Amino acid sequence: YGFNGVDIDLENGVNSTYMTKALKAVHDKKSDVVVTMAPQTIDMQSASTEYFKTALGIKDFLTVVNMQYYNSGSMQGCDGKVYSQGSVDFLTALACIQLENGLDPSQVGIGVPASTSGAGSGYVEPGVVNDALDCLAKGSGCGSFKPSKTYPGIRGAMTWSTNWDAASGNAWSKAVGPHVHGL
Fold first, then answer.
1. What fold characterizes domain 5-181?
2. Helix or strand or coil: residue 66?
3. Helix (H) or strand (E) holding 98
4. Which residue ranges make up each domain of the chain?
5. Could you give the residue numbers annotated as active site?
6. Which end of the chain, N or C, is less surrounded by CB atoms within 10 Å?
7. Which backbone phi and psi does 140 adopt, to 5 degrees?
8. Cα 69 versus chain centre, distance
């Protein structure tokens, strides 16, 4: 089929030892393999979680982690405060955990639903995604949470899913795509 990579999107049961070993074996066979991950927010709350340990274990060839900032509920940000999903603070304070705990900005993306139909909860308007990206990359557009430094190389954004985006007239990609390319 011509696949050039793999996406790790396991909702539970990740064993970092075996997953890291398996992904390194794939990388050994195909050094230019694209490896993406789409963990739930709970799986990236700390560098000691199995998912996060896997990401750090393959950091030298990991392409991007597009955490699912939806169907989550409130979570702690990198400052220890609790943030509710569906806000710029939720996106930035949780991305900060990944950025402050070893992932390169080019390996961190923001994963959100393309429309209100795309997930049970956590939808944000495309402008909120753009504000979060600006906050992380430039220190502007932030809510009450502002990272201690900026990450100009932030990877971008991912949506669930392109089908929901298409059903909404591609509103998400039309707003977020050009913004990401202009960062």
1. TIM Barrel (3.20.20)
2. strand
3. helix 88-100
4. 5-181
5. 11
6. N
7. -115, 160
8. 7
